[in-house]
Specification:
There is one protein chain. The protein is of the alpha+beta class. It contains ten helices and 17 strands. The strands form five sheets. A five-stranded mixed sheet has the order 12-14-15-17-16. Bound molecules: adenosine-5'-diphosphate. The site of adenosine-5'-diphosphate (ADP) has 21 residues, from helix 9 and helix 10.
Length: about 425
């Protein structure tokens, strides 16, 4: 056994290796002619590496590919800093490794590390390309092997995604159960608290003391706000589309929008925000659950007020539309002149508890500027849309607290909800 340097590695190479290069290449590239196999054998060399030797390094531009003759190597990919490496497969006798990066001229997509003493037949990129250009059958063979490999990797990735999806689904159900238990546990003492405060509030002797009146009003306001948050938590659990049973009745949508706006006029006046309505006269009525639609509208308008600075404008627009598959529907959009939203958050804000920015910055008022909240409003909007077979999304050019580009939230609903929700 001698030791020599090859491709900048220190390797062990046997002068009397018992391998028959031709039969090994035949195993790796089934279908090549004898002449092609001989040419390939002449252009390649046998090397033996110790265990834990890196044959290919993920991310590096390297010039060699290998056919494993004896021993085994592990092919793994760095998933993330947190999750570390993911083993893609174990390569053994007759397996090609490192050929994909040579064909694509890109850095290695995975690391290949020997597990045992590993004898490989290795070939340089240049020699490999010369052979490929001379032999169409070899090129086709390599393409076929590479496609098989890509398909195999796809299968692994799909399986991974399916498993992760199952785990996420399970976690989401746990989250929902937690919200439900927490909301129920909070509601009972809160009702007791509100009852006692109301009793206290009725004592006339307390009303003559301005300091106590102010404290009482603070307690009532706080308890009301807490009640609202607890109700929002319960709404989220109810609106989870898997359990929701829609009670659809004819809903005069334009009227419902006007009523919701009226509910929030006081809050918008306090912030000097103009609420304007632009409803197309042919906006149709829909069959839907009016309570749910009203809740969705409410959260969209509250958010528009909350994320718009004082003196801004919120515009509601409703119009008839034709949805996918020619289904007639309506669209309500809420446009504000607020802080806007970066594209990376456009999907995620509809997830339960997702909030943009620093979640520790909260103010007590539900419509105070950038007041924050529990992060459940848009999850309710999406739940309502899905339960009715509709959809919701946001459009905004980005977050900017100097120029205030604003955002538009859309809610599209079919005139008749489908028999089973999407
Ligand atoms: P929250 O209770 O935090 O308002 P939501 O689910 O209603 O929860 O909204 C989630 C996040 O989406 C908010 O924290 C906010 O960052 C962002 N958001 C919602 N509406 C708007 C809007 N009109 N303009 C800018 N950002 C918005």
């Amino acid at each position: 056994m001698i030791v020599r340097s090859c491709h900048s590695y220190t390797i062990k190479m046997s002068e009397t290796l018992p391998f028959d290069k031709i039969s090994l290449l035949h195993l790796a590239f089934n279908g090549l002619t004898d002449k092609e196999l001989q040419e390939m054998a002449a252009a390649s060399q046998l090397c033996t590496y110790p265990p834990e030797h890196i044959l290919c390094r993920e991310g590096a531009y390297e010039d060699v590919f290998y056919v494993i003759a004896e021993g085994s190597a592990v092919i793994c990919k760095n998933v993330s800093e947190q999750d570390g490496e993911r083993v893609l497969r174990i390569a053994g006798k007759g397996d090609l490794v490192g050929e994909m990066a040579l064909i694509q001229n890109v850095p290695r997509s995975a690391t290949v590390r020997t597990l045992t003493d590993c004898t490989v037949l290795e070939m340089d990129k240049k020699d490999f390309e010369t052979l490929l250009s001379r032999s169409p059958s070899m090129a086709i063979n390599i393409i076929r092997t590479t496609l098989d490999r890509i398909r195999e990797n796809d299968q692994i990735a799909i399986q991974d995604l399916q498993n992760t999806n199952k785990v996420l689904h399970h976690l989401d159900r746990n989250k929902l159960e937690f919200i439900q238990v927490a909301a129920h546990e909070l509601r009972t003492p809160l009702t007791v608290l509100k009852g006692y405060v109301n009793v206290l509030n009725s004592f006339s002797e307390l009303k003559t003391n301005p300091a106590i009146t102010e404290v009482m009003s603070g307690i009532i306001k706080g308890a009301d706000r807490m009640h609202e948050v607890v109700n929002t938590m319960l709404d989220v659990t109810r609106i989870d589309s898997e359990t929701l049973k829609l009670r659809a009745t004819p809903v005069p949508l334009k009227r419902l929008v006007v009523d919701t706006v009226h509910e929030l006029i006081k809050a918008s006046l306090e912030r000097n925000i103009e609420l304007s309505l632009e409803q197309d006269s042919d906006t149709p009525n829909i069959n839907a659950d009016p309570t749910l639609i009203q809740k969705a509208m409410y959260h969209l308008i509250v958010n528009a007020i909350k994320y718009t600075p004082d003196g801004g404008r919120v515009t509601l627009h409703s119009r008839p539309i034709t949805m996918d598959k020619n289904i007639p529907g309506v669209e309500v959009s809420v446009t504000d002149t607020g802080i806007g939203l970066d594209a990376e958050h456009h999907e995620l804000i509809f997830e339960k508890f997702y909030q943009v920015g620093d979640v520790t910055i909260h103010s007590s008022g539900k419509t105070s500027y950038k007041g924050g909240g529990p992060g459940l409003g848009l999850a309710i909007v999406r739940g309502v849309a899905r339960a009715h077979g509709g959809k919701t999304w946001v459009e905004s050019t980005g977050h900017d607290e100097v120029n205030f580009p604003g955002s538009t939230f859309y809610l599209q609903l079919p005139i008749d909800p489908p028999a089973s929700p999407t």
